[in-house]
Amino acid sequence: MTDTPLRLLLDFDAFSQRDHHQPPAFLHRRDRKFALTCEQQGRTPNARLWLEHMARLSGPGADRSAGDKAIRLWRRINTGFVLVGGLLGILTMLGLLFYDGGQRINITAFLAFVMLQLLLALFTTVQSIAGWQPWRWLTKRLNRGSTSDTVHRLQPALMARASHLGGLSFATTGLLTLLVMVVVQDLAFGWSTTLNTAADRYHQLILWVSVPWHWVWPAAVPDLALVEATRFFRAGGQSNAVNPEQWGQWWPFVVALWGVWVLLPRLALSLFSALVIRGKARQLLNNHPAMHALMYRMETPTIDTGNEHNDAGDMPDTSTPTGLSPLPASNLILAWAGADKPELPQGLMGPDTQVFGAGGRATLAEDHRAIGHIAEALAGQPGGAVLVVTRSWEPPTGELQDFLETALETWPPHVVVHLVPLSPDPNQPPDDRQLRQWLRFAHRTGGDGIGVSILPGTPQDPYVIREQVL
Amino acid sequence: MTQPPVFAVVGHPNKGKSSVVATLSQNDAIAIALEPGTTRQRQSYPMTVDGRTLYVLVDTPGFQRPRRVLEWLEAHSVSASDRAETVKAFVTQHQGDGRFTDECELLTPLIEGAGIIYVVDGSVPYSAEHEAEMTILRWTGRPSLALINSIGSEDYSETWQSALGQFFQVVRKFDAVRAPFEQHLSLLRAFGQLEPDWEQPLEEATGFLSEHRRKNQSQAATLIARALEDMMAYREKRTLTSAQASGISDEQLAEQLRDRWYRHQRQREQTLRTDIEHLYHHQRIQRQEAELSWHNEHDLFSEDSRSTWAVSRRYLTTAGFGAGAVSGASIDAITLGHSLGAGALVGGLIGAAGSYFYGDRLMLPALNIGVLKDGFKTATFGPVQDSQFGYVILGRAVDHWWHISHRNHAGRDFLDLEPADHHWLESLDKPARQAIQLAFDKCRKEQSMDERQRHKFIAAIEQSMITYDDWRLNRA
Predict the structure, then answer these.
(1) Cβ(B239)–Cβ(B378) under 8 Å?
(2) Between chains, do A437 and B36 touch, taking CB under 8 Å as contact?
(3) Which chain A residues have a beta carbon less than 8 Å from that of B214?
(4) Contact B377/B371 with Cβ under 8 angstroms?
(5) End-to-end CA distance of chain A
(6) Chain B residues within an 8 Å CB radius of A437
(7) Nearest residue on chain A to B156, judged by CA atoms?
(8) A360 and chain B: CB distance < 8 Å anywhere?
(9) Distance, CA of B256 to CA of B159 (rounded, Å)
(10) Which of A88, B79, B317, B439 is found 20 to 30 A from B62 (Cα to Cα)?
(11) Contact across the interface for A304 and B47, Cβ inside 8 Å
């Protein structure tokens, strides 16, 4: 489908416009995979292969070519120029060859017109190479809706080709009209100028103009005698000295003049403009921002660091339905997981306080023994309370939960259990966030049967203060 | 094909396992909360290059009942040689047992051959409570590495280091939220040291990650350059019919245009922010940043933005000279050097004078309200004529890029983009300054840049990113 650099560029441009809406990660994976496939097949990935690959994957029924629209538009513009050029060629030649039998057809005017055509052709080429766009208003109108920068940059070259094709058509129909007129009419050519030019000087000019064909078609190079004989002056009236046949002997020169200086340059410049378009299309493709991005995607390995999994919305419930309770008076302390190391705060210790240990380095059997000892101590204390001292920064685990559940089953039903999380600095209350996790744990494990307290006298004891106020 | 190395990140609950995984897998969508039990199931995070897995990180729940597990293991083991098998038997026997869900989840990858990455919190005192779980991990017989992560501000890492040294082959400190990228790579290399077969894939992975980061920086520069080009060249246009024109004064029209122009510029800037964040795989950042604002019709920005991000008049003059000289040099080229460099000199002087007189005033001669013609009135606002606008956008963009590129994916705090307190751009080299000024001038004049100029512009932006990084480093 991408048989010319222009079509390749337009297809690529159209495809890259569509890619704008794709997520970058997808594009990277897609193109890198294509590059790796090419590598396996021993091929060097390029835009043509890439587009073919994309078209193949889209399967039959997909757009035959994404650049078709632009190509069709320019084909229409070219056809328009060819038709208008052809028509103008006929009219212009008829105008140039207008001969009513009274006057001669002036070769000098012919030469000037050919020179003008040549200059126009050259100007068109120069303008396209320089990038001027005197036709922009026309292309803008025809190209409504398309805002591609690539097409915009290619317009001077495309417009030059349209113009040259129009010129070529102009020259061709002009030449055909000339030949028809030569056949069906008697044309009388002569030369005339206001300047004081001698026939030999004029002949020199004619020889110079005829250089390209003088060795191919010598009959199309007028000799000095014909030049001398066919000068005319409009004020001089009809000259009978010249054989009427001689007036017509200029026609091979006129045909060659038109063919070589109008038709051939247009033909050559049309071909040249096609080359310019190819070159420019290649250059634009190579410098296309999307091409750089594509090459980058093809050359760069796709790295997936495992960042697609998303469970950020699956957060635990961190609402805390209960608050801190005042610390009950108790002489039974259970230090969980070494919370009594190096020592328990003085505020907790009384003269008859008993401290038991469980969790941490203790074995499960030692945990059970501690539960049993506390149960024995509670037996003589109706309405007793047990303080379970923990390290606030070590989060409560299943082991503590197991321990408390077993203890609550073992201890008398009226016993109040209070968790007392300590902070690393005994003079400071535990961090608020840490306290909240203990409150949630107590609520989960024992419902109302387990409270959470902090040491009395520590500054910032907001929960206790709140309860006292209430 | 050999299996890629797998690393199970394990530990006590709430010690930052998920943070470590989030940072190393560059995933900011992993649930992280200061709540034990946030991770309920193990989750694999494979690192793949072109579909080939180089290593896998597995995030796991924390130990809940390690002493009970250890008691079971000890009761079922006869000698040291059967310990790994006994751990496997424990998992087989307790699959589906609600009490040991977390233990089964975290031990499964280990019995399947994963390496151990044991995470502790170095900001809290060492606790013997961890010894049971460390013993279980030792029983698995897998290669192991301990990571001392720091969640809080205190530092107890010394005690942890000596305790962990008795259980693990390697002990490393790693702050999941603050560790710079080089430390991520160094940690991954350390993972590779745990077993000879793992060294090569981890070495390869760090190479890819390093290269990927370098390319990300270039990509970020391209994104910033594109946004700057868009914003500097943007023009807000409104065409009114005669009836509409009669119903609105020029002042109101100007006000409307300015409003719309600012709204567009803010949106474009936000798009750039999101693009940069997505480039670095940050999908969920909550940002706090002063938005583009102005005080009165002559000022593009608030006084703060100007003093923070705009460059000095001297800077503008030198950059303007350079940019003018580049334009003037084309005259020398046309005359095939016969102008003896006068083009460059004159161009440079014009550029410098323009920058000197127009710079630092934050003027906005960008408003153009046409007269009523053919029943229509056209009013435009922009492109902005003041290159300081570009420097403010550039400063803000580079600052944001820096924060994003240095932000670990474990970070969940607000990204607070506080303005910098120094004209860091002053340390940018001359060619880069000139390339930036030239690009701004081109946009101002509504001229498009060719590929070579655009390439230089992007390179200059990248250079300014490096300069900013250096400045931040030295400031710290």
Answers:
(1) yes
(2) yes
(3) none
(4) yes
(5) 83
(6) 14, 34-36
(7) A424
(8) yes
(9) 65
(10) B79
(11) yes
Which residues in chain A have their CB less than 8 angstroms from residue B66's CB?
Answer: 399
CA Rg value for chain B? 30
Number of Cα atoms under 13 Å in the Cβ half of residue A83: 6
Could you tell me if B61 lies within 8 Å of chain A, comparing CB atoms?
Answer: no
**DSSP label at B292?**
P
Q: Is B149 helix (H, G, I), strand (E, B) or coil?
A: strand
* A359 vs B contacts (CB less than 8 Å): 67, 129
**Interface touch B13/A361, C-beta < 8 Å:** no
String of b and e for A208-240 (b: at least 16 CB within 10 Å)? ebbeebeeebeebbbeeebbebbbbeeeeeeee
Cα angle value A447/A451/A453 (rounded, 5°): 160
**Contact B299/B362 with Cβ under 8 angstroms?**
yes
Q: Encoding tokens for residue A41? A: 């097949």
According to DSSP, residue B311 is labeled: P
**What pTM did the predictor assign?**
0.80
Residue whose structure tokens are 């709540």: B35
Q: Which amino acid does the sequence have at B213?
A: R
Which amino acid is located at B395 in the chain? G
Angstroms from A30 CA to nearest CA on chain B: 11
Inter-chain CB proximity A364 and B45 less than 8 Å: no
Report chain A residues whose CB lies below 8 A from the CB of B63.
Answer: 397
A44 touches chain B (CB under 8 A): no
Token couple for B381: 């606002």
CA nearest neighbour of A191 among A174, A205, A177, A211? A205
The structure tokens listed for A388 are 């379970």
- HSE at residue B369, side-chain half, CA atoms within 13 A, is 13
Q: Is A470's Cβ below 8 Å from some Cβ in B?
A: no
Residue B289's alpha-carbon distances to A71, B296, B388, B404, in angstroms, are 48, 21, 19, 13
Q: What is the largest CA-CA distance in chain B?
A: 101
B392, B301 contact by CB (below 8 A): yes
Most distant CA pair in chain A, distance: 160
What is the chain A residue with the closest CA to B38? A316
Query: Coil, strand or helix: which one is B241?
Result: strand
Report DSSP state, residue A231. Answer: B
Between CA B390 and CA B411 the distance in angstroms is: 30
**Residue A336 and residue A352: Cα distance in Å, rounded?**
20
Instruction: Cite the DSSP H helix spans in A148-260.
Output: 149-184, 199-209, 224-229, 244-248, 251-258
Model ipTM value: 0.79
Site from A149, A307, A368, A428 to mutate, B interface, most B CB atoms within 10 angstroms: A307
Measure in Å the smallest separation between the Cα of A368 and chain B Cα atoms.
13
Pick from A333, A359, A361, A358: nearest CA to A346: A333
Question: Is B45's Cβ below 8 Å from some Cβ in A?
Answer: yes
Residue with tokens 């400071």: A428
With the C-alpha atoms ordered A233, A236, A241, A247, is the resulting torsion angle positive or negative?
A: positive
Tell me which DSSP letter residue B124 carries: S
Q: How far is B411 from chain A (nearest CA, A)?
A: 13
